[in-house]
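TL;DR need structure tokens for one chain.
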Amino acid sequence: MNTILLTGAGKMGSALLRGWLAHGIAPERLAVFEPQPSGDLLALGAEHKFRLNPAIAGIREVEALVLAVKPQSMQDALPAFSPCASEKTLVLSIAAGKPVGFLEPFFPVSPIVRAMPNTPAAIGQGITALYANARVTRTQRDLATLLMKAAGETVWIGDEALMDPVTAVSGSGPAYVFLLIEALALAGEKAGLDSALAGRLARQTVIGAAALAAQSPESAAQLRENVTSPGGTTAAALSVLMGSHGLGALMEEAVAAASRRSRELAE
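>> reply
TL;DR here they are.
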């Protein structure tokens, strides 16, 4: 039986594992390595009977090796798993900042896909950008898509250099949205609302607006215009947010800074 081997079962690895199980991947196909398994992982293993920390030497026919260890640990962790990967094994890495060129010396004959998911993957609402090296077949691209769809949507890119702006937009992006909720709630407090009410209004407004954007065929710009009456309250607020030093300029600067740091971490 072809094995899906997951190394690292922290937040992202566990989210993928739960998604695979929910999407019907047979537990007997799954082998999971996690040096410090949490109570939740142990309970999940007891429930579904996948292999948890089996002997590496006993693993055969690895169809996919999913690398979910922390980026700073990969240099030390990967040599143990190199023997598991053959020219038929898809190596799928979700380690931020680790390019394909970093992985190829450890897996010189294997097809490699680099993936950049984001934290909403924990509830199956993430988005993952994927990049494949030249050895990856169409079937293996489909497999990588299947494995990452457990975390949400997927997109493929043809230039690995785009992983830096992808990281800046979607990888780091949830933090920008959380900051928006924070800032909107705090502004509400300063305008006279109590903290609980301001927090509830800010959170649900962002949730509702995101859900509307997800369901609507209209662009974000059109949705913004739909709620903006000339001379109204929204227009007054947007005159500040869309000014020369407003949200657009700040977001451009923020994404550039994150992209630059992503490139630095890959060096």
